[in-house]
Amino acid sequence: MVSIILPTYNEAENVEPFIVELGRVMRSSAFDWEVIVVDDSSPDGTSSIARQLAKDYPVRVFVRQGDRGLSKAIMKGLELAKGDICLVMDADFSHPLDRVPDMVKPILEGKCDATVGSRKVSGGGAENWPLIRRVISRFAGFLAKGVTTLSDPTTGFMAIRKSCMDLTKLDPMGWKFVLEVIAKLDLRVIEIPIIFKDRKAGKSKLGLRAQVDYLRHLWRLYCRRYRIIPEFIKFCLVGLSGFFVDTAVLISMVDLLRLDPRLAAVFAFFVAVSWNYALDRLWAFDLGRRTKISHSYMSFVAIYILGLGIRIGVMHLFIEYAGMEKGHWYVLASFFGIVAATLSNFLGSKYIAFSKLFSRS
């Protein structure tokens, strides 16, 4: 059986003609099928219209309350699906109904685990799209290249073998459920060319919030695949806090204890490094808590001392050979030195101080 999942919100004008046309397509195929309409409490009566269609078509309707959203509606539809193959599509005629059998056949024939309707492969496209929309679509797809090899990762048209779905691994947000599935599940995927059309009736839900949710979703997927990204951001935040600690200790020791600023700077450096070590160990790095404090701390301090040398060395190169000693160009030289030292400190911390090298047995 094929379970066709339709997430809906205010699709009263579309849902009846859509299911009627879907019925025509499916009755001409050899598939057993059902339609699961998952409605987000549409105020226009979408769910009531869908329920009336259950007299003539294999339609089930589930109305969601509270936490709404397209991806979560699809998740609910997948939970309710009885079919061996689940197909997700929009109920506004933007996805071609006549391609539904073509989406299902490769899975039934064992050629793949999932199919994705693509506008970007040969034979695919979008009907009557203005240039700006094509550019935005291309750019959105480009942004996802680091987490998927799909030619059209922003499509919403997908069929998948239900046994391949592990819903516990999925935590979608926004409207790009297909991207979530392909990025997180190890699937054999075939892209099927489709001609995308704008909705026949109703209002598009593709607003600013949807675009922001897409960027947030991408960020989560990138952080999941490339764990070094959140680690580096946390490391930089810890380093920023360490700068304020260093400055506070320096000023306190000079003003209150009357120490020589150069001597005070040495104390401030070690206090700040100790502060950074504690936060990096507890928060920034996954293996941090499991490392031996004595060995990892000494390595951490050595790495930071090396980083200080790298900073000074980079400054020296720019000042001596790039003429940055004049005016305030030395500030830019210092910035380059800090960047180089930060990268050195991060890599040393991750792969030496907080690595398996010093983890507890």
Q: Could you outline the blueprint of secondary structure elements for this entry?
A:
Elements: E1 2-8, H1 12-27, E2 33-39, H2 46-53, E3 59-63, H3 70-80, E4 85-88, H4 100-108, E5 114-118, E6 125-126, H5 131-143, E7 158-161, H6 177-184, E8 189-193, E9 195-196, H7 208-225, H8 228-255, H9 261-284, H10 293-321, H11 329-353
Parallel strand pairs: 1-2, 1-4, 2-3, 5-8, 6-9
Antiparallel strand pairs: 4-7, 5-7
Describe the overall structure.
Helix 8 (228-255) runs antiparallel to helix 9 (261-284) and helix 10 packs antiparallel against helix 11 (329-353). Helices cover 52% and strands 11% of the residues. With 361 residues, the chain is an alpha/beta fold. The chain has helices spanning 12-27, 46-53, 70-80, 100-108, 131-143, 177-184, 208-225, 228-255, 261-284, 293-321, 329-353, and strands at residues 2-8, 33-39, 59-63, 85-88, 114-118, 125-126, 158-161, 189-193, 195-196. Strand 1, helix 1 (12-27) and strand 2 form a beta-alpha-beta unit. A 7-stranded mixed beta sheet has the order 3-2-1-4-7-5-8, with helices on both faces. A two-stranded parallel ribbon has the order 6-9. It has 2 domains: 2-225, Spore Coat Polysaccharide Biosynthesis Protein SpsA, Chain A; 228-358.
